[in-house]
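Please describe our next protein:
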Amino acid sequence: MTLDATLLSILACPEDKGPLYYFASEGFLFNPRLSRKYVVRDGIPVMLIEEAVSVDVSEKESLMRRISKEGIAPTFAG
C-alpha cells in the first residue's frame, strides 16, 4: 500500500523534524540522520519515537545505496 503524496510531503521525523525516505515496498519511512525506521501499518505511518526501529551501520549503508540507486526522494526538501 502506498501513502498519499500529500501526506508524504508533510511527514517529518518526530524527533529531529527532518525529512524521511519512504520505502513503499517494505512499508517504512527511514531517517538516515538518526538511523531509524518508522513502520507503516495498515497504511498509517507510526510516527512514535518509542516505536521506531534502529538500524545498524550496514543496513543504513544499504538503505542509502537504494535511495541513491532508486532515486527515492525525501518527504520534503530539508
Observations:
- The chain has a mean pLDDT of 95.
- The first helix runs from residue 5 to 8.
- Residues 5-70 form a domain with the N-terminal domain of TfIIb fold (CATH 2.20.25.10).
- Residues 4 and 49 are 22 Å apart (CA to CA).
